[in-house]
Amino acid sequence: MKRYYKLAAFCILVCGMLLPILSHSKEPSLSQTVEIKLKRLRDTAGISALVSDYSSRIQSSQILYRGRQAVKYSTVANGSNYWSDGRFMPGSIMYNKKHYDSVYMNIDAFAGNLEIKIANTDISLVLDPEKVEAFCIGKRPFIYMGSEQTLLPQGYYEVLYCGEVVLLKGVRKLLMSSVDNMNGTDGIGYDDPHYKMGLATYYKYLPYYYYLNGNEVKRLKRGRHILAFYPKERRAIKNYLHYKYNYATIDIERYIVEVASYAESLK
Fold first, then answer.
1. How do residues 22-71 score in pLDDT, each as one tens digit?
2. 192 vs 86, 187, 228, CA distance in Å?
3. 3 pLDDT band (50/70/90 cuts)?
4. Residue 94: beta bridge partners?
5. DSSP H or E run through 132
């Protein structure tokens, strides 16, 4: 009997030591987490039995997401506090483990918030980021990377590429001042036909890009920095891009996506 108890105690001890290791080994990597979030959004799209149209579920007496009302900035400035410009675009979202279609959304890149527009009103709400899993604005996929990980700054990211590796884009907007013309991609981030030359204050557009491979995370400050991850394929990639594009006109987003895609096709 004593031998039985000793054996049982030993088994409990061993299981207690192994379980954390086994559970940790099953955790998805960061790049896998991105893929999983996007897959859930795709897999739940179009399931009419489970999905109700967003507009039909908004009632004047009941707000679906119960978010707080977005701040209306009083500062007059060129550009927009939003990710690209101030237009809310329709899309789909996985929020609080539910899928919603026909949601008008935009990202306040100055405050780092995802906002939704209440149908038939000028009111927009800020969603709880920890309940946001993935969403599409138009055809552009986005995810929220929050407190479940520590390798990336918390926030919203556009998924530029998701294959063997993942390429993410983040955007920050800063309120700055300049007497120079800041209209365009190097200033406010887009060409604004209503840009006011006499107004010095503007929202500075600051994009940043990340390369993810498993749990390896690298920020790409320049497009060509991605070539460091493909030393064997480097020459073939450069020849391919030289043949297909004019290096003077290709932007960083298209460049890094083309590199990752073509490098994957070589394997």
1. 344 468 898 989 988 988 888 876 543 333 444 444 433 243 556 788 98
2. 11, 11, 36
3. very low
4. 99, 134
5. strand 132-137
**252: number of Cβ within 10 Å:** 18
* Chain CA centroid to CA 216, Å: 17
> How many angstroms separate the CA atoms of 267 and 265, rounded?
6
C-alpha span between 54 and 88 (Å, rounded): 15
d(CA 216, CA 181): 39
Residue type for position 206: L
Query: Do 105 and 114 meet the contact criterion of CB atoms below 8 Å apart?
Result: yes
Q: Render the burial of 146-155: b for 16+ CB within 10 Å, e for the rest.
A: eeeeeebeeb
216-247: pLDDT as tens digits: 999 999 999 999 999 999 999 999 988 887 76
Is-contact 205 189, C-beta < 8 A? yes
The whole-chain average pLDDT of the chain stands at 83
CB 204 within 8 Å of CB 176? yes
